[in-house]
Every structure is written in C-alpha cells, then in structure tokens.
Design brief:
The complex is a heterodimer. Chain A has five helices and four strands, in the order ααααββββα. The longest helix of chain A has about 50 residues. Chain A has a domain of about 130 residues. Chain A is of the alpha+beta class. Chain A is rod-shaped, with a radius of gyration of 27 Å. Chain B has one domain: Orthogonal Bundle (Helix Hairpins). Helices cover about 65% and strands about 10% of the residues of chain B. Chain B is built from two helices and two strands. In chain B, strands 1-2 form a two-stranded antiparallel ribbon. Chain B starts with 14 loop residues before the first helix and ends in an 11-residue tail after the last helix. The chains are: A alpha+beta, B mainly alpha. Chains A and B meet through helix 4, strand 1 and helix 5 of A and helix 1 and strand 2 of B. Strand 1 of chain A pairs antiparallel with strand 2 of chain B.
C-alpha cells in the first residue's frame, strides 16, 4: 500500500501501522518460530513531496493540515522505530549468549575425546563457585526454557544451538533491514515537514499569504 | 535535519537529493554503530592480550590455570590455555579488521554525499551530528 493510497482514504494509517508493529512485537521473543514474514513492505512508505504546491492542491489542505498529517505519520514511524530498536537490542544480547553456550559445548566435546577427568569451578550462585570433576561424558543438558531441561547428545545439542543461532542472526538481519527502510521513511518525512514549513514561511514573506496572527 | 532557510531564494529539493539525504542519514547511524562495535571489540581484544601475557608470565610452568568457558571455569594446563586464548585473539582481530574496513568505506561515502549536498544547499542544510 503506498502512502498515496493511504492519503486518499479517510484514515487507514493507524490500523496499518498498529498491525505492523504488533506483528513485530510478537516476532522477537520467539526466535525459534519460522512464521514471521514481516518485510520492510509491511511499513507504509513515505512519499517524497516533489512539489509543495501540487501536494497541497492534491490533498486539498493548507500548510497547517499538511504539517499535522506529516507530524502524525512521523510519530508513528518513530513508534515503530522504538519497537524495532528494542527487538534489535534483545537479539543483540541473545546472540552472544548462544555463542557462549556453543563454545562451552565445543569445549566439552574436545574434552570428551580424551580420557582424563576435567576439573572445573562452576557457579553455584552468583559469587559462589564450587568445584566439580567432569567424568567422560557424551551428553549435555540444555535449558529449553519454560522450566524444561533436556538431555542431548553433543551433536544434537550442537545442531539445536547452531539452528537457534542461525534463526537469531536472520531475525537480526531482517530487523536491521526494516530499520534501514524505516530510517529512509523517517528522513523523508523530516525533510517533507521542513519543506512544507519553509514553503509557508516563504509565501508569507512574499505576501502571498497573510502574515500569521500572533 | 534541515534548518528553516533564511535566504529568500531556496533551492528545491529533488527526489535525487532526498535519496542522498536518506543515504547519508543511514550511513551516519551505521557509522555510530560501527564505532561502538569497534570499541567493544578492542576492549575485548585488550583483555585477551592481557590474558595471554599473564599466562606467559606465570612463574611455575606446570601450574594449571583456570579458563572461563561459558559460565564455568575449567582447569587447563598452560599450553592449552595459551592455545585457546591465542585462537580467540585471532578471531577477534579478524572481526575488528573487518569492522574497521567497513567504517572507512562508510566514512568516505559520507564525505562524498556531504560534499554534494553542501554544494547544492549551502548553509540551509545541516548534516552534522544532530541525532542519536
């Protein structure tokens, strides 16, 4: 849906935007699902105003109304942006965590080929460490969330974790893409607002519009 | 982004200019992101290098060291620990170099865009740091 179409309709924008952002909201917490299909296209595009005069005429509005509309659009974009940024920060925190787990798993795997026992200090609770001897093992337990822990063989665990890492990375990429697209729309809207505003100032200066009553 | 122009004669913004402005805005954000990333990578690298030096400076070569793997510490002999740390250093160095290469391209592209936009709009455009 283009912004031009949106303008022609009475006020379809909020629904479209709220819809987009709620999809985005549900998208992030469960990085394991595949059903997320929001594209940058899910965010309505902002049209560049070629000519302010024509724009005002075609939308049958004065400067004030046009500005108000742009401002409205702008704050909606900003809202989506804050949501997306949050999701991005979430994922950016999650990815190192998965990597860390993978690293530990790989370490265990190399250890499991030797016969020697492995001495570790592990965290019992923050600031308390306990010693443990690791006997030769070929399984690990992964915390799946929702109070579930499951035992996996090394290879299974590695597959699962790499899969999660992959999904998290693709999600991050997608959010990044959406943010870039959104950035374009925000900048365009900013420039549009400035130009409509300047246009009005210029008209008033040249006397084509009466000076603003203070 | 743009100051309300003071001059009476104002240049019209074309779609191409808008595209340039958009690109500049995106690059600016990317630039700051890269700066942050590079900084944290460098800190990490510094830690790893300190770590590597510490291992080398240990007096007793047979004394095992504790290496943090995931959430726990694992006892390792110095040779293995050194190998592990060196591998990490290599990895982080590679990543840092990649980021640094990218920030250079971003920088030069920004300069290009800025030159073009300032040429056209002069003082009525402000492309300095004005957003987070």
């Amino acid at each position: 849906m283009s912004a031009r179409e949106l303008r022609a309709l009475p006020d379809p924008l909020p629904a479209a935007l709220v819809g987009a952002s709620s999809v985005l909201l549900t998208q992030v917490p469960d990085i394991m699902s595949e059903k997320t299909v929001t594209t940058p296209g899910g965010i309505p595009a902002a049209d560049f105003i070629e000519n302010v005069d024509n724009h005002l005429e075609s939308t049958k509005s004065n400067h004030e109304q046009a500005l108000a509309k742009l401002q409205d659009l702008y704050s909606k974009y900003k809202f989506i942006e804050s949501r997306l940024s949050q999701s991005k920060a979430n994922l950016k925190g999650k990815i190192p965590e998965i990597k860390k787990t993978l690293e530990a798993l790989k370490f265990l795997k190399t250890k499991s080929t030797g016969d020697e026992e492995c001495l570790t200090d592990f965290e019992l609770s923050p600031t308390i460490l306990a010693k443990a001897k690791l006997k030769k093992t070929d399984t690990v337990c992964l915390w799946l969330g929702a109070n579930v822990m499951m035992e996996f063989s090394f290879d299974e665990a590695e597959n699962l974790l790499s899969g999660n890492l992959g999904t998290a990375s693709t999600n991050l990429e997608r959010i990044q893409e959406q943010l870039l697209f959104l950035r374009d729309q925000i900048t365009t809207t900013e420039v549009n607002m400035a130009r409509v505003y300047n246009h009005e100032v210029r008209l008033r200066k040249s006397g084509k519009l009466p000076a603003k009553a203070e | 982004m743009m100051a309300a122009g003071e001059e009476g004669e104002e240049k019209e913004v074309t779609a191409a200019d808008q595209a340039d402005i958009n690109e500049f805005s995106k690059l600016n954000i990317r630039f700051h992101e890269l700066e942050d990333d590079i900084k944290s990578k460098k800190d990490h690298l510094q830690n790893l290098q300190d770590c590597s030096n510490e291992i080398m400076m240990l007096l007793d070569d047979s004394e095992p060291v504790k290496l943090s793997v995931g959430e726990a510490f694992v006892e390792l002999n110095q040779e293995d620990a050194q190998g592990h740390v060196d591998k990490c250093i290599e990895e982080v160095e590679g990543e840092t170099n990649q980021l640094q290469a990218e920030i250079l391209t971003v920088k030069s592209r920004m300069k290009e865009l800025k030159a073009r936009l300032t040429l056209k709009f002069g003082k009525s455009i402000n492309l300095e740091e004005d957003e987070s």
